[in-house]
User: Fold these one by one.
Assistant:
Number 1:
Amino acid sequence: MPAPADPALDADDRRRVADALRYLGRDLHHRSFGVSAERRELLWQEMDRCLALAERIGGEADGAVARQPSEPPALEPGRGAVLITGASSGIGAALARELAPSLAGGEAPLVLTARRRQRLEALAAELTARHGIAVQTIDADLARPGGATALLEQLERRGVAVHTLVNNAGFGLRGTYEQVAWAEAAAMLQLMVVACAELCHALLPAMQRAGSGRIVNVASLAGLVPGLPGSTLYAACKAFLIHFSQSLALENRQRGVRVMALCPGYVRSEFHAVLGVEERIRERLPGLLWMDADELARRTLAALDGSRTVVVPGGVNRLLATLARGLPEQATAALSTAFSRRYRQG
Ligand SMILES: NC(=O)c1ccc[n+]([C@@H]2O[C@H](COP(=O)([O-])OP(=O)(O)OC[C@H]3O[C@@H](n4cnc5c(N)ncnc54)[C@H](OP(=O)(O)O)[C@@H]3O)[C@@H](O)[C@H]2O)c1
């Protein structure tokens, strides 16, 4: 006789348990470095058990209810919310300030998300007071597996249909690839690749149905340089976003959805402080290479009205992008190595 189903656990519960077990398994893996071989063996056994159980429970949940992506709220042509990730500081906050006036007088909200809730609420209050617009905040950690899914669930629960998605959240890492702890590298991939791709995947169909929508993936000049020592994973994530956006733009050209990869150079924000190189880079990097976040936001909105997919804001940055693409590989390798020593490593 088959075991009776546990009435306390539905398919969603089982998926959550499976996600938690996967997370635990990965955590055990991270903890297994720098310990004795005996301890490592024990941790790996536990990790295998967690992951096997996660697959079983997750598989049962998927079998019980076929994974049906829930229908996103309907989006009226030309209307809908603006969602900005990484809106608690820097470029994301500047884009929110720049986009806010265009939402005045409409019903669609501006949705700000990041981890620091107080910052988001302060910005929301400022924008509501200044422009009389509805601003919603959702605190979400998009570097956590399942973080983007949780954000999408929140949007659905609130009945928010997204017309403009700005995938902006990001951070840098210091050191050569093997020096970076895997947990940090995995978080970067999750935040700057997986979450961006998942949000596009979930929100695009409603834009296509409405024949109107906008996706801005905030990449970087670093993604256009063929090889940047000290920024290995970061530059690769940004290169992914550029190529991803280019194909997505082509797929959606006739469907009313505008896709753009924004490739800024150096921008004054909290980015370099978080990275721990702020003082050095501010001292050493020539002023003409810097751009204010507000100016970048203005240029971004202007570019959004145009048709370019890969947008490099600023004359100096465009020159650097042209050099990165046009110089022979040996020349760019020598330049990027010297650059990295001076500003990132040395
Ligand atoms: N500054 C530059 O020179 C520069 C140049 C080219 C491209 N970019 C790109 O521009 C984007 C914005 O960076 P920024 O310069 O504005 O830096 P920033 O001031 O440090 O802002 C980064 C934003 O990302 C959010 N974020 C970080 N980790 C997160 C996580 N795990 N989950 C959710 N949100 C997270 C942060 O919010 P919380 O900490 O509150 O979560 C913050 O709002 C990034 O993608 C960056 O790679 C920056």
Number 2:
Amino acid sequence: MEKYKDIGLKLTPQRLAILNYLDGNKEHPSAEDIYRALLKRFPTMSFATVYNTLETLRQRGGLIELTIDPDKKRFDPNTEPHHHLICVKCKRIVDIHGDYKLPIPNGERAGFEIIGNHIEFYGICPKCKKANSL
Ligand SMILES: [Zn+2]
Ligand SMILES: [Zn+2]
């Protein structure tokens, strides 16, 4: 929660619940996931509230938006550089922490100074693999 303190959001109970939901969350939830998870406690909360809060957080660097899942945008409260592995069946996304040195040949660099990378790995998670073999 500490990192959200400086982000300058007015903390309404609903926003606080969204931040709490995200804090330490490794599931890479979508806006819909968060909305559904909090709807029980905040039946009057609108989807726009969730979406706008996420968008504000993203703009202020408190969240990373992942486009790895073609079905929906997913959000990652872990803003440290890391990579992702996605299950092509259930769309579960897990973090990969590792420093991959991927040299780009000089001719391909288009004059860019490279400051980072994000690698998306695709696979089938143990759960889906098990379900498949039944
Ligand atoms: Zn899976
Ligand atoms: Zn992540």
